[in-house]
Amino acid sequence: MNTNDILTRAQNFNPKTADTDEITAMACELAKVVSIAQTRLDSLKPLIRERAAGMRGSESHVQFQTGAGRVSVTFPSPRYTPRKGVDWNHMRSALGDRFDMYFTTKVTHGVRKDIEQVVKTRIAAVEIASVLEALSRDEPTPRVGFKPN
């Protein structure tokens, strides 16, 4: 596969005048090039990280300037995160008033997966107006996937 040829054709490609077969064929060709490039790029990242780590000193980032552009490696500060499977009720009980000294509590609210059916079933209920004020309907963008040959 000649990626230069594909990229040149893609630059000259006019989707406004192309039919659906031409558009989807071009998309698959480009997806294949992107996949190859991403695979190669992913294999280079660990090497770049390793070399940057050896050069960084006390800096939080290292930059490499090349004729093709710039590569930046950022080293985040170490941080503590909660382990999976922690029994938070036990932890809160064990620490008592000191729990908030070490941990924050975040409560999230979401919409039930079957909300559509619940709203239809409860449409005449007194609370439905309040419930509908708390909801907005999202129309997600259709996903497009590529399976290049």
How is this structure best described in words?
- With 149 residues, the protein is mainly alpha-helical.
- The protein has two domains: 3-74, no CATH class; 88-133, no CATH class.
- The chain has helices at residues 3-12, 20-55, 88-95, 99-102, 115-121, 128-133; strands at 61-66, 69-74.
What labels describe this entry?
two-stranded antiparallel ribbon, flat, mainly alpha, 149 residues, 6 helices
- When the domains are counted, the total is 2
Mean residue pLDDT:
94
Q: How many strands appear in the DSSP assignment?
A: 2
Spans of at least 5 consecutive residues with low confidence = none
Strand portion: 5-15%
Distance between the termini: 11 Å
Helix fraction by DSSP (H/I, runs of at least 4): 40-55%
- What's the gyration radius in Å? 26 Å
Write down the overall geometry: flat
Q: How many helix segments?
A: 6
Major sheet details: 2 strands, antiparallel
Strands side by side in the biggest sheet? 1-2
Structural class: mainly alpha
Instruction: Give the ordered list of helices and strands.
Output: HHEEHHHH
Structure summary:
The chain is mainly α and 149 residues long. It contains 6 helices and 2 strands, in the order H-H-E-E-H-H-H-H.
Layout of strands and helices, then pairs:
Elements: H1 3-12, H2 20-55, E1 61-66, E2 69-74, H3 88-95, H4 99-102, H5 115-121, H6 128-133
Antiparallel strand pairs: 1-2
